[in-house]
Amino acid sequence: MIYENKTQLQEGCARILEVDGSDIRILDEKKLKDKLIDDLIYTAVFGPDPAIQTAVGWLIRRAASNLGIFSASIQPLYEAMGKEAVKGFTVPAINIRGITYDVAQAVFRAAIKGKVGPVIFEIARSEIDYTSQRPAEFTCAVTAAAIKTGYKGPIFLQGDHFQLNAKKFAADAAKETQTVKNLIWEAIEAGFYNIDIDTSTLVDLTKATVKEQQKVNYTLAAELTTMIRDLEPEGINVSVGGEIGEVGGKNSTIEELNAFMEGYNEVLQKNGESLKGISKISIQTGTTHGGVPLADGTVAKVKIDFDVLEALSQLARSQYGLAGAVQHGASTLPDEAFDKFPETTTAEVHLATGFQNIIYDSASFPPDLKVKIYDHLKAKMKDEWKEKDTEEQFIYKTRKKGFGPFKLELWHLPADIRNKVCAELEKQFSFLFEKLKVNSTQDVLKKYIQLVDVPLEFPAALKNEAPI
Q1: pTM
Q2: What are the extents of the domains in the chain?
Q3: Are 330 and 435 in contact (CB under 8 A)?
Q4: Which terminus of the chain, N or C, has fewer Cβ atoms within 10 Å?
Q5: How is domain 72-360+410-448 classified at the CATH fold level?
Q6: How confident is the model over 171-177, as a mean pLDDT?
Q7: Which residue intervals of 232-305 are DSSP H helices?
Q8: H helix intervals, 83-164
Q9: Of residues 183, 185, 193, 173, the one with CA closest to residue 72
Q10: Which residue, 181, 173, 264, is CA-closest to 217?
């Protein structure tokens, strides 16, 4: 059901949720989980009235906090990893591009089953656009999934690749920088307390020295970090990530890491002596986002340089107190590769396209809908079809952009189909959690992550009227 107005919302929440001053009380947790939360998140995503959508989002987040579910920063854990007080696992960061409410439930089910501690839910700047998921919606979907599955504890929401576009920056640096600053502000307001700054697109390899090559990168990373520190809520230190090499480019080096960190720290100290810096560093080790599709649409095997990953992770900790290096573009790697991330002390690994592939390639995914999506891509994205690419390669590269235009159709897939697809995803999440050694790490979160109940602005649609 969708709530189109305040009256419908009142009726739907009656005897289940009750507004109490500037907060809520949960009167019937079972009914909240069984049905109401489904209607609330559906309204938050597809509701026709923005004011009601905002009110519903507030209800979801406040209900979650009443159940012990809080958006959190992973910063304290990463500081402990930087001191090597915690080790032995790699934190998975999962990008969810479609049917987010259902997919997030699969993540939580796998996490609960494996007693998993740290797992990050993230969405990149580019994904926000082509999947039609603003940060507030993404937060609501993940939070509602936590409520639905009975998960309790911190939720790590992350802005992935909050990236400056090199061409747009060259045309108007101030405008492109402000666009990313606006997105950071929006994300933190939505409860994203983990932000990966990506200014690595501005590295200039034509410069004479490595530090000169990294200068624009580290200068802007420090500027954006300073802004984040101004925006973070009381009691929260947002975890900030930096990046020294664009994924898909040349492999990163020790010299680049040193040059970036030295320059970054110099600029950051000028901005404010007590400012916390980044907690991790993303590097390039041989992967590409989404993998490299072959002519038949299958993905080429990639040889990842684990020696680079290990060396830079160790340097990041010993020299700069970071949690370690971050690996992007990993979800399409062969299964046997994932054991290597904890072995090489990789701090975090980003996983996206592999889950998208499970959705599209599932035997349960409706063939007629797949044809409809692919026909749409061939008609609307034909300017992205490179002359050398086969149709299979074109589809593989662009089908991520089907999630936004077909968001409603995907949401309305029959429950049995969504359940079968998500069962496949849950199996893969469980596999990855085991390989990354985050099973049985809940005590780590209890030790290092303090839950902070950040106040939320009371929604206008609920003011000065009869309580729900």
Answers
A1: 0.94
A2: 6-67, 72-360+410-448
A3: no
A4: N
A5: TIM Barrel (3.20.20)
A6: 98
A7: 254-271
A8: 100-114, 125-130, 135-149
A9: 193
A10: 264
